Amino acid sequence: MICLIISLIVIIYAAQVLLYAVHMFQQNGYKNKVHLTWIKNNYPKHFTKSLSREPAKKPLVFTPRVIRLLVTTVLWFLIFCLLNRFFGNEYTLLAIAVIYTFAVAPFAPVISNLINKPIETSIANGFKKKAEGLLSGMPDIKVIGVTGSYGKTSVKFYLRELLSSKYEVLATPESYNTPMGVVRTINERLRPTHQIFICEMGARNVGDIKELCDLVHPDYGIVTSIGPQHLESFKSMENIQGTKFELPDAVHQKTGDDSRIVLNYDDEYISSYNKYADAVTYTTDGNGAYNAYGITTSRSGTEFTVTAPDGSSQKFMMRLIGSHNVINVVGAIAMSHELGISLKELVIPVRRLAPVEHRLNLIEQGALTIIDDAYNSNPAGAKAALDTLSMFTDDMKIVITPGMVELGAEQEKLNTVFGEQIAAVADHAIIVDNANTDALKKGMRNRNYPEDRLYIAPSFNDAMAYVHKIPGETHKIVLLENDLTDVF
Question: CA angle 56-57-59, nearest 5°?
């Protein structure tokens, strides 16, 4: 009887481990290979995080797919228990429960996903066919693809706002940039009145952008940036370049009009890889078809002037701050102008642009001003955020960061450089403790950063509490650079 009670306790614990595993599987995009790599690096978390009372940053969503996954998992676990009923005893039940908890539960989502693959493929294909049918039934709609290692979500939102001044526009919401996210957007939101569909395109592996292009067949495309984001899965920068250029390749193949391709020529990985001579380029250094210059930033926003290929020029003012926000807005201006909206007509829409949440978003909190750049840090974006922080010369500058992730073999090196960059700007630095801590500390020590101005926080909440304890009457500017998701 005691053995049976212990078995039930272990099974209850196993259920917690399983739910955590499914939660992480969902955040890893339901991709077996990605999740197995994550398990390899994070196996012990299944047995600590599953008991943690700390709320998840992004809770498990019980979608129909998750429910099917859990039902399948429970069914094949019950089969093992029934086998024990006929061939074993309470001791073998305990053994099964222990083995399942520590050896099987972390991998159960992958196993059940493989079992469910025919069902999931059939369901996905049904949704895809419906979406393809809706798009093909609107031959006059213009489809714009937006991709990049970073900046794509911001450019998508800015472009939507600018184009909406003249057209009926649908854009994929939030960070919907996977095939099923795009399919869901089309099936649930596309209307006959829409004239333009802006499709954000994300990628972790070679061929991901092509899959999206084969789904929506873009007429126009913007590549916002290329960098070492997701280098761990891509393996090389050449693979990242080739994957991002699957969008221009698709536009070229469909239209034969390379002027429908819009490229950020401030990015050397884009300018050095580009093979389309007629592509429309945009820059802040004067070497593009569209150029921004005279950039000034204050706590109230940013001013800059844009010149276009037709010789027109226009001064813009916006509430957004940061150099990479300028280049992102210029990309949206370039595409909008190419689609028939004059620079003068874009002045008011640009002025109305609101910051995209967690992407260099300025938040006033009394004695604090927070620069929220917490979405997803990368080397170029992190440097740009620090450059923005450095402009506040009269304020106390504080950086809170866990560093950067998904950078493969370059992660330690790039976080060391990031630490050096923080040391050059921040009056106080707070590292949210994780695997990047040593690299960040190394970089800061390379620049002789004072130890009494560096604090290692066990959590983000602790980091914010520490900010309030820092003495001084000077107004505090706090840069939140990256906030790791639950999988980290």
Answer: 55
pLDDT category of residue 487 using cuts at 50, 70 and 90? very low
Residues 121, 122, 123, 125: what is their CA dihedral angle, to the nearest 10 degrees? 80
Q: Which two tokens stand for residue 393?
A: 């010369």
The candidate with the shortest Cα–Cα distance to 444, out of 425, 461, 462, is: 425
Q: Please give the Cα distance from 143 to 219 (Å, whole number).
A: 5
| Confidence band of 20 (pLDDT split at 50, 70, 90) | confident
Q: From CA 213, how far away is CA 201, in angstroms rounded?
A: 9
pLDDT at 310: 93
List pLDDT tens digits, range 132-185: 999 999 999 999 999 998 889 889 999 999 999 999 999 999 878 889 899 999
Task: Annotate 164-190 with b (16+ C-beta within 10 A) or e (fewer).
Answer: eebbebbbbeeebbbbbbbbbbbeeeb
Least confident among 21-30, 99-108, 355-364: 355-364
Q: Which two tokens mark 219?
A: 């007429």
Task: Quote the percentage of the chain above a pLDDT of 90.
Answer: 55
Using CA atoms, how far apart are residues 222 and 263, in angstroms rounded to an integer? 6
The DSSP annotation for 84-100 comes to: HHHH--HHHHHHHHHHI
Say how far apart CA 129 and CA 294 lie, in whole Å.
48
pLDDT at 53 (0 to 100)? 62
**Pairing status of strand 368-373 against strand 361-365:** antiparallel
Strand, helix or coil for residue 278: coil
Who contacts 31 (Cβ-Cβ below 8 Å, separation ≥6)? Answer: 204
State residue 315's pLDDT score: 96
Percent share of the chain, pLDDT over 70: 92
Residue positions counted in the chain = 488
* Extended strands (E) in 124-276: 142-147, 169-171, 196-201, 220-223, 261-264
For 298-323, b/e burial (b = at least 16 CB within 10 A) is eeebbebebbbeeeeebebebebbbb
Tokens of 87: 């061939």
Tokens representing 138 are 């609107």
Cβ atoms of 258 and 279 within 8 Å: the answer is: yes
Q: How many CB atoms lie within 10 A of CB 91?
A: 12
Q: What is the average pLDDT across 98-120? A: 88
Q: For 398, list phi and psi in degrees, rounded to 5.
A: -125, 135
Report the distance separating Cα 241 and Cα 102, nearest Å: 40
Domains and CATH numbers, the chain: 2-120 (no CATH), 138-352 (3.40.1190.10), 361-481 (3.90.190.20)
Look up the pTM and report it.
Answer: 0.79
- Taking CA atoms, 352 is separated from 139, 290, 320, in Å, by 31, 21, 10
